[in-house]
Amino acid sequence: MNGSGGYLATSASASGELVKVVEQKSPPDTALTFHAPRATSLNRFQQALFRHGLTLRRAALHTLQVNVGRKCNQTCRHCHVDAAPWRTEMMNAETARRVADWIKAHRPAVVDITGGAPELSEHFCFLVETARTSGCHVIDRNNLTIIETDAFSWLPAFLAANAVEIIASLPCYLEENVNAQRGDGVFGKSISALRRLNAVGYGKRLPLNLVYNPIGPSLPPPQAELEADYKAELRARYGIEFTRLFTITNQPIARFAEDLRAQGKAKEYLELLANAFNSTTVNGLMCRSTLSVGWRGELYDCDFNQMLAIRMRNGECGIRDQQATTRPLHLWDVTPADLAGGKIQTGDHCLACTAGAGSSCGGVLTEPQTQRSH
Ligand code: SF4
Ligand code: SF4
């Protein structure tokens, strides 16, 4: 940031290619400004913002999303993390301790723990307990099948004892569709896991939210209608209760992007997202209030940028230390106050967050009858 409040900022496309953007700083408490940027080269998301006279800036920090690593017991087709059982990138003890120290010092309203399967981290329970004793609301992004493995049968009771909110993927209430996207046998294990969660109070006194994402290159259907269908079907077929359904638009990155390219549909999908740009979603984009931390403690504006390795750097996100270099930032380099008003790194993939009703880790951004879970 220069002394006059204007920015000469660097942003990135979905391919990671760096482009120069010249724009002006907006007030820290809003995403909306009518000081239109002067652009020399804009990605497609920035072009959409530009057409609507908008820029994107951070608001106050609400959620610290901690990605503890890439290891997972599943290998879902749509996975934006490329997670799998053979991945070895996992948070070590020193990084977990530094993340925990930051949580204790800054007490974000929400600590959202994700992966991979975050429970596979040997530091999962430590992070949950640290966040809870610091007064934070804790979310576990749970794939359900982990509960069915012998090593994790303790998990429902542990999560319930710590009043952890569960957000779990279940892309359909039909067995065939879930198995097609997440692997053979996943539906049956997911149903069994949901029953175990119901048995310890989830879906009743404790929040159990399910996530739907389209199987193919389309936008999700209306969230509230789909939630009603899920509730009726899961109750009638399996006696399962849950709290909320979040619909999430697939990001054109990682395995989903590979699938799109293999089907020759990558360009078509990007056009679909661009044509469905909804300016009213911008104010609620999760990158405005979430900080994403990787398994090495490195910082990103969101989990999707993390998968694209679009890191937050000194001098490029409103933070500039005395060395004034563009070194990548770690969690322990920043405070929540540093971040407010800062620039957000974007790319073409961001169009998935602003298409239709909008999309975030907490579902749609604009449907009036749906509220974020926290
Ligand atoms: S369960 Fe989640 S993290 Fe694991 S492979 Fe599937 S989508 Fe990826
Ligand atoms: S992908 Fe979505 S959440 Fe991430 S920076 Fe882009 S708009 Fe924000």
Overall pLDDT score:
86
Low-confidence stretches: 1-39, 368-374
Q: What is the beta-strand fraction?
A: 5-15%
Number of helices: 12
- The SSE order reads EEHEHEHEHEHHEHEHHEEHHH
In the CATH classification, which architecture of the domain at 63-283 and 349-354 applies?
Answer: Alpha-Beta Barrel
Q: Kindly state the number of beta strands.
A: 10
* CATH fold-level assignment of the domain at 63-283 and 349-354: TIM Barrel
Structural class based on helices, strands and sheet pairing: alpha/beta
Question: Could you explain how this protein is built, in words?
Answer:
- The protein is an alpha/beta fold and 374 residues long.
- The protein has a domain at 63-283 and 349-354: TIM Barrel, CATH 3.20.20.
- Helix content is 29%, strand content 13%.
- The chain has twelve helices and ten strands.
- The protein has helices at 44-51, 93-106, 124-133, 155-161, 175-182, 186-199, 223-238, 254-262, 266-275, 303-307, 336-339, 351-354, and strands spanning 6-12, 18-24, 63-67, 110-114, 137-142, 165-169, 208-212, 244-247, 290-293, 299-300.
- The strands form two sheets. Strands 8-7-6-5-4-3-9-10 form an eight-stranded mixed β-sheet. Strands 1-2 form a two-stranded antiparallel ribbon.
- It is globular and about 55 Å long.
- The two termini are 32 Å apart.
- The relative contact order is 0.16.
- Mean pLDDT is 86; it is low at 1-39 and 368-374.
- The protein binds iron/sulfur cluster (2 copies).
- The site of one iron/sulfur cluster (SF4) has 12 residues, from loops.
